[in-house]
Give the backbone structure.
Amino acid sequence: MKRTGLNDFDDSGKFSFMKPYAMSHDFGYVRSKCFYSPMGFLVQKLSQQKRMEIRLLMVDYFKRHPSVETTTFSRPPTLITGFTRTGTTYLHELLSIHPETRAHNTWEQMNPVPTTDDESPLAQQQNRIERHKKGLWLFKFVDRVAGEISQAVHKVEYDKCEECTLPCSLELPWNITNLSFMMFAAEELFSLGAGRSFDLYLKFLKLQTWSAPDLPSHWVVKCPFYLPFLDDLNETFSDSTIVWTHRNPVECIASTCLLFECITHSTCSSWIVDKKWLGQHVLKYTRLSFDRAFSVLKRRKGDIRIIHVKYRDTTKATLETCERVCKLIGLPFSDEYVSILKEHIAKSREKRKIQVEKYKYTLDEYGMTKAGLEAEFKEYIETYC
């Protein structure tokens, strides 16, 4: 591409890395019945171009700095997943503040590739500072486009931990401007599989570890969109533990719909978003995701390390839940960590109270009923919630 002067995408997977994005548009965008606003179209184009540029730059950096590939971690990454609004973000925050863990911040996802060839720790540290400053203006722009409601539903901060949708969007259509359309193209996208997304994500984690060797290298990462791709995820991170959060869909699926509605508004005209049509496809996406995930667990029983965590335990028995998870992934539950946790829990409860009071939503808005959801997910609710 002209901006980078590079052309090697390392496109050696089962399909072209642009195919999932094409399917997201051809099936998801078209099926959503939405239309980009002029600004939304520009934002979508620039955002997807940024993903392509990062992939080019990362592939090139690995070729010119082969020592990055040999980077190891102190422990295998811990992978948190669970459907949207089931407590993945909160649990991610809780585990990421452990003195022996690390989570990637938003700014690291926006500018992950060093711009210096000097491999010394001092040069890399200085380059991280420069990249941090460079990306701030773009974050503020995206933050303004996303709007207040989007931030209220899922708060994203420049210097705080964030899920891996951006680094995994180098192949999967998890770019923020495509996420809502993914709901409308679930069957087509799931049939493709994850391609090389998780292999590239592993490279991303190695690069962040290599460029900041002074920081802990036990990564705690999370993404609600892992569920339909547990096979691909486990193939790349075979030594990792997956932490799956569970919550009754009756309690959270309307909030999920609101999140995707807000994402749609960031690029499309708000007056054309059909809430009930969106709700129908969020429900379908949820059902397909669960079916695929449980199928993998049944077929590969014993091969995948997995911890099941209930939402009510994360929010009501927070210390006990963190202690249980830490024990299972090999982390000490020290007095220092308990002190950090207590402070974080107190602040988080106040923030969640404000959020709940400010924005209201109902199942009916999105064409769902409590009885219908309880019947649809009866076995899941009884077993895991």
